[in-house]
Amino acid sequence: MNLRTDIRAEKRFLTGQSIPSRRRYPRVEKTHGVWIYWNWKGREDTSRVRDLSTGGLFIETEEVRDLDATIRLDFLVQEGQIRAKAVVRHVKPGSGLGLKFTALTEEDGPRLTALMTRLASPSRSRTNSN
């Protein structure tokens, strides 16, 4: 263990500086009301989206899938049809799956951006945040 590194992290925390994120894409964590329908090898399910970024998402499910399994996604949102393919990157048994987008149609990209903009907006009405 390198104590010098630990001390630097503490100093950043104490001075209010943020520690850089490892994430490539910023994520939206307040995704109340966002659900997806997903399909894997003929098995279908509907799950709540816990967080979302342009790189992927985390879905709540009891189902466990293999790492690198390919899943087809359909978002159930007011922005319109958003279809994507993703691969499983993280499995949290009993909690959910971390998915990385691998394919998104040219038409669905702007809808995903609109969805993220709506979710990130601080002026979102409370009726949209169930």
Q: What is the element layout, followed by pairings?
A:
Blueprint: H1 3-14, E1 27-28, E2 35-40, E3 43-53, E4 56-60, E5 70-76, E6 82-92, E7 96-104, H2 108-120
Antiparallel strand pairs: 1-3, 2-3, 2-5, 3-4, 4-7, 5-6, 6-7
Q: Can you describe this structure?
A:
There is one protein chain. This protein is 19% helix and 39% strand. The protein has one domain: predicted glycosyltransferase like domains (Thrombin, subunit H, Beta Barrel). By secondary structure, it is α+β, with helices and mostly antiparallel strands. The protein has helices at residues 3-14, 108-120, and strands spanning 27-28, 35-40, 43-53, 56-60, 70-76, 82-92, 96-104. The chain has a 6-stranded antiparallel β-barrel with strand order 2-3-4-7-6-5. It is built from 2 helices and 7 strands. The chain is globular.
Summed up, what is this model?
The chain is α+β, with helices and mostly antiparallel strands.
**Amount of helix:** 10-25%
Per the CATH scheme, the topology name is Thrombin, subunit H
The assigned CATH architecture is Beta Barrel
Please tell me how large the radius of gyration is.
17 Å
Instruction: Name the beta content range.
Output: 35-45%
CATH class: Mainly Beta
Listing every helix as H and every strand as E from the N terminus to the C terminus, the arrangement reads HEEEEEEEH
Number of strand segments:
7
The helix tally amounts to: 2
CATH superfamily: predicted glycosyltransferase like domains
Count up the domains.
Answer: 1
| Largest β sheet strand count, sense and barrel closure | 6 strands, antiparallel, barrel
Mean pLDDT over the full residue set:
79
Strand order of the largest sheet: 2-3-4-7-6-5
User: What ranges have pLDDT less than 50 throughout 5 or more consecutive residues?
Assistant: 1-21, 124-130
